[in-house]
Give the backbone structure.
Amino acid sequence: MTNLILYASQQSSDLVSVIIWAMLIVALAAMIILIVWQRKTGKALMAELAQHDKIQKHNVEYEFVLKTMRLSTWHIMADTRQIIFDNDFRDKSGTYIPAMGKELVAAMPENDRLRVMKALDDLSNGLIEEAHEEYQIILPGSKTPYWSESYAAVVERDADGKPIRIVGTSKRIDERKRMEMDLVEARNKAEESDRLKTAFLANMSHEIRTPLNAIIGFTGVLPDVENAEERKELLNLIHENTQKLLRIIDDVVNISKIEAGKEELVMMQFDLGMVLGQLIDEFMPKVHEGVTMTSQFAVSPQMVTTDLNRLTEVVKHLLSNATKFTSQGSIVVGYDAPHEGRIRIWVRDTGKGVAKEHLEKIFERFFKVDEFIPGAGLGLSICRTMAYSMGGSVTCQSQLGEGSVFTFEIPVGE
């Protein structure tokens, strides 16, 4: 009996040992599984963190690019046309109207409004995949519009393929538009300058050839003329044409010097009335028969300090024009009393006058109202340029058939 009890006790002890070992093995296996799971979970977590850092880095770079390019990003719900800005890094110089949506209808000029709204409708209705528009926006309370450029594309559609969401970017492009307009203006000026130079060369050929032919022709027959009176008349004609040729060459030289900026002001003090009186005496023999040339000075003597040569050139051109276009009546040269440090010299005539649409054009180089009147069309342009260089101006008041008044205003000087 005792042996049976001892055997049972030994068997029970072995069973317990087996159970304990089994539990230890299970625990060990569970621990190994837990460790493996934790390592996998840790790797997945590290990958997620790395991806998060990458996304965050990309977002920072994305925002940096947007800021650098001064772009705004937005999206529009196709059904409501409601615009939502995701980022707006445009130059904050005012209140911006949304890029493409219902709100811009009232903010856009008529010529841009229909075109841009059609592009938005086509995007929302699925007729096009993307759009690119440049347009103007007038800010509330402002009369000056600013330029905007937008790109848009459909990025989400429903099961039927109908657009749900449209995304896009916008950028303010005032500077670019200004440069484009400057380039267009520069191109137009270059083309106009080329046209005018071509016309100038053709005109110069005629203007120089006319007095030169007269000089050569009269000089050729002069030795054969024995009558003293006829010889004197031919010499006068030669002298007259020589002066015309000299005047044309002087105009070309003057305009070349002005363009090159090589002429500097030579300031000196002189009596304005005396200088104008000498010019009147010089032009008196050139006026048409029946035309009177007189002076009207507000103050005499009137001392001024300016460039005498330039003042003389301007007044000579004004007197030359007056004598050319005045066939009857009078020419009056004068000046008003100085006012606020400036003085106005004027030449008034009763000649042909200038049409209203030509009042500014006559100061353009090579422009001639009457092609049958001798001249290269440079005189008034030189007048205005010289006047500007002296700190003054040249203007014209005229009506066709009722004469003209050319006013030359300059600083009096100290």
About this structure: The first helix runs from residue 2 to 69. The chain has a mean pLDDT of 79. Residues 111 and 135 are 9 Å apart (CA to CA). The two ends are 150 Å apart (CA to CA).
